[in-house]
# Entry
Amino acid sequence: MNTNKLISLLALTILIIVIPAYAWMEPTRLEQSQADLRQEFVSDAAVIYVENCAVCHGAAGEGISAMPSLDNDGLHTADYDTLFKTIARGRYDTAMAPWHSDEGGSLNDYQIDELVTLIRYGDWTQVGELAAQRGLIPPTLPAAAIEPERLAEIAALNAESGSQWAAGMQLYAANCTLCHGIRGEGSDLAVPLNTPNIQATDVVELQRIINQGVPGTLMAGWENSLQPAEIEALAEFLQNWHLIEAEGIELTPPQPIQIDVDNPEDMLALGERVYNSTCIVCHGEEGSGGTGPVLNSQQILTKNSDEQLMQTIINGGLRPNSSMPAFGDRLTSVEMEAVVSLLRSWEPTAPWVENPRGTAQGGGPPWLRATPDANNPIAPNTTQGQGQGQGKGGPPWRNSGG
Amino acid sequence: MTENTSNWRQKILYKPETDDRSRMRAVANNLILHLHPTKVPAPALRWTYTWGLGGLSALTATLLVITGILLMFRYDASIERAYTSIQYMETQVLFGSFVRGLHHWSANLLVITAFLHMIRVFLTGGFKLGRGNNWLVGLFLLALVLAFNFTGYLLPWDQLAFWAITVGTSLLSYVPVVGTAVSNFLLGGPEVGQATLRNFYAIHVAVLPVLLALFMSYHFWKVRKDGGISQPIRDKNERVERLTTIPHLVQIEFAAAAVLITALTLWVIFVPAPLEALADPSHPPNPAKAAWYFMGLQELLLHMHPLAAMALPGIIVAGFILIPWLDKQDDNIGLYFRSRKGKQMALVGAIWALALIPVLVIADELWLDLPAMFPTWPTLISTGLLPLLLTLAALIAIYLIFREFGHANPSEALVGLFIFLIVSFILLTIVGIFFRGANMALVWPV
Ligand code: HEM
# Structure
């Protein structure tokens, strides 16, 4: 046989083996490519979602106050066309605007297809994660806020129900500002509430409206999401808003900040935000400890690498039944990294030991517990003496005097 | 019945005959012999003479037609549906990805084989002794191949497609007087949009195939009409062995075809045709690059005023068209590089290009700033006319150096210049494809 024939034969043999093999694999390949494409749709949609829908439906589709959650079983199994139509045409007379370019929106068929895919197949923690990683929106959507000192001021306004007003204002900040505005001035979604008209309305009537909502409008009933006491507080607050306003007390509007995830300072600020909202209850201010251990100490910080800290935050406490919760699917990786960077930023100044041994005795040696007296530094008046160090202020038998 | 069958066999298939005479008769009206003469000189069969490049181009073109027709059944040339129809093919249609991959990679391969074929024809003087016409037809075929690729590039309507065509057609607008009009005509408006997609689709599946079929037929016919492919002129009394086309030539062709198809199949299976994200006119990728075979031109554009960057290739293409009239020395036909001297000139040309082009590219990126050197001149002169004239002067100088100091005859000097140009072009293309990053800045490929 000459070379040409040999080469032809060889090539044809390979072909005869390879093509049936490929054909045999083809169904698998088709399935795989469909799965890949779905994944691609979901990732693309996540971007569209974060840019367009997250303001109302939440960073991870969890819904914000009266805006519906998109992450629920009803929608996972919803009919494709219905979802497409809902997004394309919006819901008449609600805040849900039409999104299709044919209807005056900004999205095309393809993008709406992608969104539908996201709603039906989507892994929403992944959406929140993606949103955070792109720094497109703050990982935790901020609500309007009010400082604690101001709340105390409100409470001081009225001896009887001042604290109710304060609570109501806080509830209002968390639930109602999106539609009714920071100052109750209303928005294109809802009517103003800080009006003489409302203030003149009977408290019971106000409670009824808030409880049951206004049928056929965006005003949902809050019966199920708020406690009766909270509704009462809200009504009280609405009735007396003008008095609070007269004191110059206002809500601070939320500051949707764009985070630059590559900027260490932004990350530190974010870390502080996350720490103060999530960790502080257990680990204390600046990591000074509480129910949870002190974090601001070399013992913890030098012992643990960033990865180890990260692991603890993701998986929770090491000990069984530890009260340190696992934050892995509650925080995005960006937020967790930010917290770690915050903890790490304490390291250079952190004390060596969590609790200096001397502080465990209940406020120093007994003879040093008296409050220093400026007139008589060495021998203060011991009858006034109260331990002022850490701990409970001295042994109980010394405390009884007041 | 039996009679019928043997008749049919005789006409279409090859039935082995034992002696030369009956072989020739048996195949006299055989399909294959519509394309080939019955006998060919043995040296013309040498693999290393043609490298089978013309034949492989023809095979690739045939594959493209077949796979192209299959693709047409599922493709939808509307900007809303084009991209999804490709996704549909990739995910729903049995062998859809395979057919698309074959078409995609064959198209890229054809650019390469046709280009190499042109180089081979030039180097063996295949345009000599009455073959000048076919050289022109060949150049036109190359242009057709590029036009096919260019129009086809847009059809998937992904980011790559959209921006490559946008970048490509934006060059047109630099052509004085008619540029914008031609561009608007092709695009069906000022921008790449629905009208463009439909225009390109029509050109891709109707206009170009007809032209290609016509000119390829003429090309093949002319090769035979010119007495087969070029061969060295031999003494009258030197006897060259002549072999029958069947089986000798056919065997070679079959082997080449089998290898090509097998290699292509394997490639397609392991490297499916790419598909980027849906075209998004508001988000240009950075860098926005033209199709790879135009990267040489886009690279040139970085160094010269657009008008000069269009004029230079224009002048060079004109030179290529004129080659049969520039090199009129016919006695060196059929010899690679014409002669020993020609080979030396080619080597020198290649080395000069290899040394000069990278240096110039880097120098222009880092130090050369022509507008700053001649601040009072309009940029059309400082970055346009000046580099253009310098380049042309350099080309002429290279030719003259070959002639004077290399003692080459015009034919040999032309080989050196040709190789210099080809190597330069390939280098610019490589730089454009691999060494240009964001904002088309020079980068090291990762
Ligand atoms: C679609 C693209 C093309 C196809 C299918 C094609 C096909 C062929 C074939 C089959 C041959 C026979 C010899 C061989 O296989 O090398 C040939 C010869 C030739 N081709 Fe092409 N060709 C194409 C493009 C070109 C180009 C771009 C040029 C040059 C600008 C060219 C110029 C010639 C010439 C002058 C010959 C005769 C060569 C000789 O006699 O040595 N062709 N072509």
Summary: Chain A touches chain B through 24 residues (CB under 8 Å). The radius of gyration of chain A is 30 Å. Chain A has three domains: 18-136, 148-246, 259-349. Chain A has 17 helices and no strands.
